[in-house]
Amino acid sequence: MNYIDAFRNPAVARGIRARVDALAGDLGALNRSVNIMEVCGSHTMAIARYGIRDILPPNVNLISGPGCPVCVTPTRYIDAAIALAERGVIVVTFGDMIPVPGSASTLAECRARGATVEIAYSPTRAIELAVAHPEREVVFLAIGFETTTAPVVSIVDQATRLGLKNVSLLTAFKLVPPALTALLSDPEIRIDAFLCPAHVSAIIGSDTYKPFAEAYKVPCVVAGFEPLDILYGIQGILEQVTQGRAEVVNHYARVVTAGGNLQAQALMAKYLEPVDAAWRGIGVLPMSGLGLKPAYAAYDAERKHGVTVDLGAENPACACGEVLKGKQKPPECSLFGAACTPDHPVGPCMVSSEGTCSAYFKYLR
Amino acid sequence: MSDQTIQLGHGGGGLMSRDLIQREIVSRFGDGALKGLPDGATLPVPASRSMVFTTDSFVVQPLEFPGGNIGDLAVHGTVNDLAVCGSIPRWLSLALILEEGLPLATLRRVLDSVKQAAVDCGVVVVTGDTKVVARGQCDGLYVNTAGIGEVMDGFELGVNRVVPGDQILVSGPLGDHGMAVLAAREGIRITSGVTSDTGPVHRLVQSVREFAPKIKFMRDPTRGGLASVLNEVVEDRAAGILLSEPDLPFSTGAKAAAELLGVDLLQVASEGRMILIGDASISEGVLKAWRRLPEGRGAARIGVVTEARGRVVLETVTGGRRLVDVPRGELLPRIC
User: Fold this and answer.
1) What does the DSSP assignment read for B264-322?
2) Terminal Cα-to-Cα distance of chain A (whole angstroms)
3) Does ipTM surpass 0.85 in this model?
4) Cα–Cα distance between A300 and A339 in angstroms, integer?
5) Between B315, B320, B323, which is nearest A52 by CB?
6) Phi, psi values for residue A34, rounded to 5°
């Protein structure tokens, strides 16, 4: 099966659109609109790339959520990473973090000044570097949601097995469910349904969303990242809304199961424990992140190298916080497209390729 | 003296240099204007005809990639620039900068490709230069080619002639070269593979001469891909472009590699394709002529010129529309 073309078939897309239009028409006749939040940054990007917002009926609104890991990583985290690199530590990171502005500088500028900042496509790069440079310390910038957490924490797993003592993680792992709780509890935000993340759900399992569907009466539909996946997910949500149901439905069964990836879950449970976490633009949410257990403090860069990460100062005009909560759309920010562009980003939502502002700037200006 | 690798002495102007030039350059290109190695080439320029002159440098890494190497790429790059200016490519210069330690076998393969590509394109290498730099001062091998072409009658190319209603055609699948080089560099092995499209477009241009007066714009979409070329066409102009995603030709291998690496194929270089914008009345004729050639088999009509001032818009597979932006910064360094 050709997995690329099968989920981008224009004729099938037309069929789903017709169904979406009909369902939205039924709701419109009752004067009802639906606010759907896509939680995940990859959904935000795909929605923009395929022009999906453009074809939805006016009473179906897509709101972009806080699901871009780079965007919700606090300024002071970047500052700590830069401080480590300037001390001679080899900092290893996924490429998205390189241009993100900290309070005074970026990792890109830090690298240009001579520090060692390595871009990795796989976390195993940190192990390779630690083995190749036994005389130097290696720190991996461990950010991300559940999808990224499992492979990144395998660095600790490998390091313990190889007896490596010169590698550690600067952790800012985030969890999706606590963010959903925070969003649903905010009286200023009206969310009628969630388009649930694709690959995060592959790890945590679609059953995770059951308490939300039940307690808050919001339909939760798991969808993949292809255009047909997204349209079909929206159709599934509208069906539930028109029928007055609020259930968890998994429309991404080719990848996601009810229980998730048990091996990944076991790996995370072995090394990590829930901690309060700072979300850039949102604030500290209780037990919304994961940190290394005390038994593995030797692999915790904060404890090992004496750096701290807390909420930093942000440009007061930057509306990323409001954008991340879905309260504002990027063009409503006074900086958007003028003072803040992908070439000169002010806020995190513009800098990451998955950021809501970046998606708007690239595809929807 | 080892003849297995390039040494600094090969660029010193002495016996070693002469030996290298005789064995590797003269043996391949020594007929015609290069005969006797004069300091410059004397060329028989036809009277009362305009000539096109262009140059390009090639620093691709790796030097050899699926579908080609820096040698044929250097010929095709310059030949294609000449061709899309509406000229028949005639003469090339070939300048090599070699790094000390370069395996001679690599140089030979590259020069064989230069020769074969030049023959295929009907161009003659008429002058050249070879320099050697110390280890670490260049990355194996850099090539510069300059080219001269003879302008064909009938073409009146210029973006100022592009008006709403014109159609946009491409000669084949887009982005194969950039993805082949990137996949080779990242060590990505894909079952269906992706092979560089490096190749000449001069035959494609010559095959549509009969439509020349109604052809308004031709370009080979190299660095920055289709997105860069089309944005350049409409920049600051009273016209825009609407592309149809289902009509865009891409190879399966390029699509797979682009998905894995998170790259937008609209922004990826081709090295053997051309874009043509012309009056709607010639589209069928151009496509028919192109499809008769092996290099034009995958030709397609991909969009129309609109009145949406300065905007390149894509109608996606969902029917929704979005902006096609120019790539920011260096998307894929050193692909040509």
Assistant:
1) -GGGS--SS--EEEE-GGGHHHHHHHHHTSGGGTT-EEEEEEESSTT-EEEE-TTS-EE
2) 36
3) no
4) 37
5) B320
6) -125, 125
Question: Residue B169 CA to chain centroid, in angstroms?
Answer: 17
User: In whole angstroms, what is the distance from residue A325 CA to residue A37 CA?
Assistant: 10
The beta-carbon neighbor of B323 closest among A53, A227, A364 is A364
pLDDT, tens digit, 9 for 90 and up, residues B240-271: 999 999 999 999 999 988 888 778 999 999 99
Question: Rounded CA gap, A64 and A319, in Å?
Answer: 14
pLDDT at position B177 is 97
Beta bridge partners of A195: A38, A221
Q: Which residues of chain A neighbour B264 with C-beta distances below 8 Å? A: 49
- The C-alpha atoms of residue B26 and residue B20 are separated, in whole angstroms, by 9
Q: What is the pTM (predicted TM-score) of this model? A: 0.86
Query: How far B134 CA sits from the closest chain A CA (Å)?
Result: 24
Q: Tell me how far the alpha carbon of residue A120 is from its chain's centroid.
A: 18
Distance from CA of A71 to the nearest CA of B (A): 18
pLDDT tens column, A125-137: 999 999 999 999 9
Q: Is the pLDDT of residue B76 over 80?
A: yes
